[in-house]
Amino acid sequence: MAQKEISSAVIERLPRYYRYLDELLEEGVERISSAELSRRMQVTASQIRQDLNHFGGFGQQGYGYNVQSLYKEIGKILGLDRAQNMVIIGGGRLGQALANYVRFEKRGFRVIGIFDRNPDLVGNRVRQCEIQYVGQLEQFLRTHEVEIAALTIPRDEAEEVARLLVNNGIHALWNFAHVDLDLLLPENIVIENVHLSESLMKLSCKLNKDRWLSEE
Amino acid sequence: MAQKEISSAVIERLPRYYRYLDELLEEGVERISSAELSRRMQVTASQIRQDLNHFGGFGQQGYGYNVQSLYKEIGKILGLDRAQNMVIIGGGRLGQALANYVRFEKRGFRVIGIFDRNPDLVGNRVRQCEIQYVGQLEQFLRTHEVEIAALTIPRDEAEEVARLLVNNGIHALWNFAHVDLDLLLPENIVIENVHLSESLMKLSCKLNKDRWLSEE
DNA sequence: TAGATTGTTAATCGATTAACAATC
DNA sequence: TAGATTGTTAATCGATTAACAATC
Question: CA of A100: how far to CAs of A126, A198, A206, B12, B109, in Å?
Answer without folding.
Answer: 7, 24, 31, 29, 26
